[in-house]
From TrEMBL, chain B:
GO terms for cellular component: membrane. This is Succinate dehydrogenase subunit C. It comes from Shewanella frigidimarina (strain NCIMB 400). SUPFAM superfamilies: Fumarate reductase respiratory complex transmembrane subunits. The keyword Oxidoreductase applies. The lineage of its organism: Bacteria, Pseudomonadati, Pseudomonadota, Gammaproteobacteria, Alteromonadales.
Length: 241, 247
């Protein structure tokens, strides 16, 4: 039987709450286990070596989007990244750029997503005149529902935002997550907003016309959402308004 | 109705920003940038093919040049250099349109430039790198292409001997050796990016591979014809006499 590898983790450490603390990289060693993910490794490090290590997680299965971080220069979910993917056993972990740092690997994506949601009105706008709750709802075609579910798979992990150089250069840019959600409501037959209404929200330099098609979102999205096609669809739609 | 007109007034008061920041211009700017870029890119591909007809000999290039200068409309069969002049002016106009709209993509503040460089170091990513080079080559072309166009506007004579004279004796090779790689990279990746940007093709990676093959092909074509002009130029005695058709 082959000997288990020893992994070397180089982890960004900084606690903004602690006065006098300076950002630094700290190295940890850990014995690899079969099927180990970066998320499992981080939990073991916290349990056995350093209880002060900060990182986010909830579901450990790529559903909650909490554990996004930059792993060896690639932003992705820690729970979906096997340590076996790194043959030399060196793993460098950095927090997602473009968000407020809570501490170490933990960033405040929630604050960003909430502000984005409020700014772009990312909720269903049904016909307000039709408020008879006894009326049977109009059925949605399975094709339409499938399309919506495809876009609903977004877990708001923030990877697309951190992988977008446009967003890093222009802080007010809505990013792929904002456009994905707009496209989701644009496709929804229950939403009464017209293309014209959406144009007012994303038909500008902070929206779809500010996107420079760098495709960082497309190449890093851990849920493999079709950002490239979706943004192109919105761009064509908005350009014809 | 009253509420509507009030809303319009409010909108007008709020939307006071002039220029391309206005929402209507956002869509127009994106469309015009892409459209002018496609025109310039396709023109470059044709241009390189036409001028590389020198690879098939002086006669081939002579015939191509006379045809494009409208030789079939003249009694002598000779084209009009004025056509080149007018066409160069037209391309300069398209170039200006493209430059004006592409300029809004440039990082205008040092902070933006730093953010971009930081991001590229932090997360190496191919398409971001492609755009970065698109921007650098675009900046260089802003100086190189007008230089080329102004020589074609002021001195539009084209022919196997006259062009070779320009390249070799008047030292245009120095410009072309810079212009060729810069414009080829900018045009090929620009066309790839337009196709992806507007979602005209789903197979992005196949498209990217095609763009790289096209780039190599255009470079080989360009370098080969540039060398041919240099060789022809070296063999010409001064003062240069225009080529006379053998047909």
């Amino acid at each position: 039987m082959s000997q288990a590898r020893t992994l070397t983790f180089s982890i960004f450490r900084y606690d903004p709450q602690e006065s006098g603390d300076k950002p630094k990289m700290v190295t940890y060693s850990l014995t690899e286990a079969p099927g180990m993910t970066v998320f499992i490794a981080l939990n073991q490090l916290r349990e056995t070596q350093d209880p002060s290590l900060q990182f986010d997680f909830v579901c450990r299965a790529g559903i909650c989007g909490s554990c996004a971080m930059v792993i060896n220069g690639f932003p992705t979910l820690a729970c979906r990244t096997l340590t076996a993917n790194y043959p030399d056993g060196h793993i460098k972990l950095m927090p997602l750029p473009g968000f407020d740092l809570i501490g170490d690997l933990s960033v405040n994506t929630g604050k960003f997503m909430r502000e984005l949601s409020e700014r772009l009105s990312l909720w269903l706008h049904p016909n307000s005149a039709d408020n008879d709750i006894h009326r049977i709802e109009a059925p949605m075609s399975p094709e339409e529902a499938t399309k919506l579910y495809e876009l609903e798979r977004c877990v708001e992990c923030g990877v697309c935002v951190s992988a977008c150089a446009t967003k890093q250069m222009r802080d007010t840019f809505v990013g792929a997550v904002g456009m994905m959600k707009i496209a989701r409501f644009e496709l929804d037959s229950r939403d009464t907003r017209t293309a014209d209404d959406f144009y007012h929200v994303i038909g500008n330099q902070d929206g779809v016309f500010g996107c420079m098609t760098l495709l960082g979102c497309q190449d890093t999205c851990p849920k493999d959402l079709p950002h490239m096609q979706q943004i192109a669809y919105l761009r064509r739609k908005m350009a014809s308004v | 109705m009253a509420a509507n007109s009030l809303q319009t007034k409010v909108d007008r008061a709020v939307n006071t920003d002039k220029g391309f920041a206005h929402p209507l211009w956002a869509a127009r700017a994106d469309k015009l940038q892409s459209l002018s870029g496609v025109l310039l890119g396709l023109f470059l591909v044709m241009h390189l093919h036409f001028e590389s007809s020198i690879l098939f000999g002086k006669e081939a290039f002579y015939q191509v040049a006379q045809f494009l200068e409208g030789g079939i409309f003249s009694e002598t069969g000779h084209g009009y250099p004025l056509v080149t002049k007018i066409f160069s002016c037209f391309m300069l106009l398209i170039l200006l349109i493209h430059a004006v709209f592409a300029l809004r993509r440039f990082p205008t503040q040092l902070g933006q430039w730093r953010a971009l460089r930081n991001q590229m170091r932090f997360l190496p990513h191919e398409d971001t790198k492609i755009w970065f080079w698109q921007m650098i080559t675009g900046f260089l072309l802003f100086f190189l292409v007008p230089t080329h166009l102004f020589t074609m506007i002021t001195n539009p004579e084209i022919g196997p001997h006259l062009s070779a004279e320009r390249v070799y004796h008047l030292n245009a090779w120095a410009l072309y050796i810079l212009l060729l790689p810069v414009v080829a990279v900018h045009a090929v990746f620009g066309l790839y990016r337009v196709v992806v940007k507007w979602g005209l093709v789903e197979q992005r990676f196949a498209m990217l591979k095609f763009a790289k093959v096209l780039l190599v092909y255009l470079m080989v074509l360009g370098v080969a014809s540039l060398l041919t002009y240099i060789f022809i130029g070296r063999s010409l005695a001064l003062p240069v006499v225009p080529y006379v058709s053998m047909l």
